[in-house]
Records
---
Amino acid sequence: MTEILRPYLLTFIPIFVAVDAIGNIPIFVSLVEGLNRKQKHKIIIDSVTTATAMAILFMLVGKWVLRILNITISDFQIAGGLLLFMISVRLLLPGAQKSIIGNSHDKDMGVFPLGTPLITGPAVLTTTIIMLDSFGPLPTFVSLVLNMLFVWITLAKADLIMRLFGQAGTRAFSKVMYILLAAIAVMMVRYGLTGVLAK
């Protein structure tokens, strides 16, 4: 039983760290401030739908695109790991997320910046394609859908979570996630280098 669940757990955790559902809550709350319940619900649906569709689409065609460009998985692991590391370091800096979202406050904010790049950005896309190669399509797809379901729940209950953890608590959780993301990035580079040197 443990062996059956192992690939699902090993794909869920990196995607969970990359998505950073808890860390995105303060940004979501600030973006939807002043909107009514119906408008907030629409933005949540738009953002989760956009994020899920982008991630699944990349999961389906990502390896095909890499093959056309003659990029090996080892190459992608090294490049993706370096990219993830830079993203995690950048997000650890004060005010980094604010610079990503700017002052977006329009009707399409569920698509941009929430759906992409905040929920499904380079970190999620890179992690998804590497998990796909490492553990196969089913564990990756299930873990991706479960993570998006978790995002939907956290956004729907954002006000409650903010009251429980507070802004400082959610920020602290987010910082821990970014450190874990940096560690996963280093692991990806290590696997990529091992693959290149083994040839």
---
Amino acid sequence: MPEDMTIARMCAPTLAGLKTGSLFNYHYANRNEMLQAIRGWNRRLAPKGVVLAGLKFQNGKALIYAFRPKQLQQDLSSEGAVQILKRYGYASEKKEVCLATLIRRISGGENFPHEIGLFLGYPPEDVKGFIEHRAENFKCVGYWKVYGDVSEAERKFAAYRRCTNWFVQRLNGGAPLERLTVAM
């Protein structure tokens, strides 16, 4: 299925439990079609600990967030994440409240909420650096711009690439996405 391949290419590290969350865009005829697809994926992937949510739908294009709720709660509760979230008006550390605030900020249309990196499993130090340096003066770049520990980030980037290649190969070989997804 084309949707499964998109999820594998864009979300493999999340499906494997290496990363808290992933984002991808997908085209739908309308909002109902998007919601139906998300319900179908959640039936297949939620038993493995992965949930998908539509963050925005506009002009036939959806921004979809795939994430592991347990990991998200841990990430958002870290001291560095809490400081960033408070700075941008997040009233709680609870993942449901934070996710609702993120959706509201994305839909608001002003500036893109760069704190979204916290929802993707990026280190708070790198999210803070990205915001404060306006995406400049980073030490290296891969899945995100790194302002902190370069060697740890490069190790993760390599693992994410290997993971994505593995998922794509297995999916091309006929394995169902839900069987490839790690239960956590």
